[in-house]
Write a structure and sequence with these properties.
Elements (H helix, E strand, L loop, with lengths): L13 H7 L6 E4 L3 E5 L7 E7 L6 H7 L2 H17 L7 E4 L3 H4 L8 E5 L10
Length: 125
């Protein structure tokens, strides 16, 4: 069920629990600001979730409250993960769902990184 990204951060959401080590995840990258792991229900041959280590509900929340170091570290992590997985060429997709209309289901900012095949149009018309 989509969430309201204006609501407060839930410290018991699944990604917070993964960050704490309460739930296992197949980790592929970690730095001081981000953690990346394989999605448990992949929608493409490569489907990696990248989350900031801070308690941010959405991209809006992160961009408003995150430090310059957190934002730069997170963005650089996404780029490094794409390079590490040989996705820069031929290409990949980044997706961040924000709020109810955007289809966000977990109240912790996360970016989906999709690749490994032709992904087709973003939205059906």
């Amino acid at each position: 069920m989509p969430i309201d990204a204006t609501q407060g951060y839930d410290p018991d959401n699944i990604f917070a629990r993964i960050l704490r080590g309460d739930i296992p995840a197949k980790r592929v990258y970690e730095n001081d600001f981000a953690l990346a792991f394989h999605d448990i229900a992949p929608q493409a041959p490569v489907h990696i979730l990248v989350i900031p280590k801070g308690a941010y509900v959405s991209w809006d929340d992160f961009s408003a409250r995150g430090s310059d170091a957190e934002i730069a570290g997170f963005v650089r992590a996404v780029g490094q993960i794409a390079r590490d997985n040989a996705l820069v060429e031929p290409g990949y997709r980044l997706l961040a769902n924000i709020g109810g209309h955007g289809g966000q289901e977990v109240p912790h900012l996360h970016v989906h990184l999709f690749g490994g095949q032709v992904l087709g149009p973003m939205l059906s018309r």
